[in-house]
Design brief:
Largest sheet of chain B: 5 strands, parallel
Largest sheet of chain A: 3 strands, antiparallel
Radius of gyration of chain A: 20 Å
Number of domains of chain B: 1
Strand content of chain A: 5-15%
Shape of chain A: globular
Number of helices of chain B: 4
Helix content of chain B: 25-40%
Number of strands of chain B: 5
Structural class of chain A: alpha+beta
Strand order of the largest sheet of chain A: 1-2-3
Oligomer: heterodimer
Number of helices of chain A: 12
CATH architecture of chain B: 3-Layer(aba) Sandwich
Shape of chain B: globular
Strand order of the largest sheet of chain B: 2-1-3-4-5
CATH class of chain A: Mainly Alpha
Number of strands of chain A: 8
CATH superfamily of chain A: Cytochrome-c3 Hydrogenase, chain B
Chain lengths: 359, 144
């Protein structure tokens, strides 16, 4: 056994957009153990539910994370609506699905950019984010916001999107598809990029299952798990199958996310083809009186929303289990035995969202 | 537009306890749509290379030493720009038990950019205003 050194990693680090701290126990160039410490972004916003009305808390829920903000609002709304036995109009469910899938495309493109930045491929980072801006333009045209939309509310959605606008969204996405393909082919085929991802941080199916990996992290190891199969919102009407790879390395995780971009574009096309006409919201006349669990598939994996209503306008408890929290044990497993130079890439391949994790 | 700028400032960005919204907008400023790199504004990870400190999110007990450390490591003259309403006052999270308020409780803030999330145009405007402050601070240092 060689001499052990501890290298502190973070909270401020060029590759990390968000603060997380790891103590890396090194033996020469190899990581023997990684000890995480979190809490730099903890705000304690679950407790805010005691002083904000359940209809206002949607805005707080959306601000759990700025990247999957729409899906946080959606998860909270669905949970409260189920607790009130409130059925929302079908068109609202379809619109939620379309915005959720657009969020997935934007999140995965953002992640591809960060990954490219992580291994120092600056122009690939720029191109990913250039394409992402087109999705943000769609968000701005339909909701008014670029990252925080506040378009989801209890009882439906705040704005309708005209059918002409929906068609123009499809046109934008179809035009984008070729460009996304050109971009993602670099991640899939380029020799230099592959040398940083293939065989790095391998996690077997059994390990993914035991450690509770969720989302693309689990699916890249062959774990067939996609909460959209539960058929919430409009997913019961749409035709899709979870995207699964078996290699379990960083390359497989990249491929899963790349294929999910195209899957999401396909889902949006299906949703626009099937969307019914009608109202987009129903009035809320009751208060939540029940406990409710809701599971959603975010870009990073499964998110669980728990709300408990006690018959007043304030909920008693809101609890969120976010995907990054579930993916930290698999990350620590992958870090063991890797080279120091691979640490940033491995941290990025779980697509960490620290502000979700700590709330 | 930026021809009067005699120096290309380098920025350092730290996420206090923001929701990520402002952080990804800060990064969006650097990418082709807004592209501040054409003016030589580079996002550096090293405080010793940075002129402007972009701070997003509110402060709490655990990140106060980190923010102080980054600020102290930056060479003079330096400018702090608080991005987003959380860094300005705490925003929607002001009543949370682990939020102590805006970033001006820890470091002296020169420019405030409100918004939730702050738009890239506003962030760029804030950085340009920060450049003016930077020039004033430099002039004051030369006089001494």
């Amino acid at each position: 056994m060689g001499k052990r050194t501890i290298i502190p990693f973070g909270p401020q680090h060029p590759v990390l957009p968000e603060p997380i701290h790891l103590d890396l126990v090194m033996e020469d160039e190899v990581v023997v153990e990684a000890i995480p410490s979190i809490g730099f972004i903890h705000r304690g916003l679950e407790k805010l539910v005691e002083i904000k009305e359940f209809t206002e808390y949607v805005y707080v829920a959306e601000r759990i994370c700025g990247i999957c903000s729409f899906m946080h609002g959606m998860g909270y709304c669905q949970s409260v609506e189920h607790g009130m036995n409130l059925t929302i109009p079908r068109r609202a469910e379809y619109l939620r699905t379309i915005w959720a899938e657009l969020s997935r495309v934007h999140s995965h493109l953002l992640w591809l950019g960060l990954l490219a930045d992580g291994f120092g491929f600056e122009s690939l980072f720029m191109h990913s984010w250039r394409l992402r801006e087109k999705i943000l333009d769609i968000f701005e045209a339909t909701t008014g916001g670029r990252v925080i939309f506040s378009v989801c509310k209890i009882g439906g959605v705040r704005r309708d999107v005209s059918n002409e606008t929906l068609q123009s969204i499809i046109k934008t996405l179809v035009d984008m598809e070729a460009e996304v393909k050109e971009l993602t082919d670099v991640f899939i085929n380029d020799y230099t990029v592959k040398s940083r991802t293939v065989g790095v941080g391998v996690m077997s199916l059994q390990e993914a299952h035991d450690l509770g990996a969720v989302g693309p992290m689990g699916r890249a190891s062959g774990l067939v798990q996609d909460m959209r199969l539960l058929g919430y919102a409009a997913y019961d009407d749409l035709d899709f199958a979870p995207i699964v790879e078996t290699a379990g390395d960083s390359y497989a995780r990249t491929v899963v996310r790349i294929r999910e971009i195209f899957q999401s574009i396909d889902l949006i096309k299906q949703a626009v083809a099937k969307i019914p006409d009608g109202e987009v919201s129903v009035p809320v006349k009751d208060v939540p009186r029940a406990e409710c669990f809701e599971r959603l598939e975010q870009p990073r994996g499964e998110v669980i929303y728990y709300t408990k209503g006690i018959g007043t306008k304030f909920l008693e408890r809101v609890r969120v289990r976010t995907p990054t929290f579930a993916n930290i044990p698999p990350l620590l497993h992958c870090l063991k035995g890797c080279d120091l130079a691979d640490v940033p890439i491995l941290i990025l391949t779980i697509d960490p969202c620290i502000s979700c994790t700590e709330r | 537009m930026m021809s009067y700028v005699t120096k290309s400032p380098w920025i350092i960005h730290y996420d206090g306890s923001s929701c990520n919204g402002c952080d990804i907008e800060v990064l969006a400023c650097l990418t082709p749509m807004y592209d501040v790199e054409r003016f030589g504004i580079i996002n550096t990870g090293n405080p010793k290379h940075a002129d402007i400190f972009l701070l997003t999110g509110s402060v709490n007990e655990q990140n106060i030493p980190v923010i102080k450390q980054i600020y102290e490591q930056m060479p003079e003259p330096k400018v702090v720009v608080a991005i987003g309403i959380c860094a300005t006052s705490g925003g929607i999270f002001a009543e949370c038990y682990n939020v102590q308020g805006g970033s001006d409780k820890v470091v002296p803030v020169d420019v405030y950019v409100p918004g939730c999330a702050a738009r890239p145009e506003a962030i760029i405007d804030g950085v340009v205003k920060g450049l003016g402050v930077l020039a004033e601070k430099r002039a004051a240092m030369v006089k001494k």
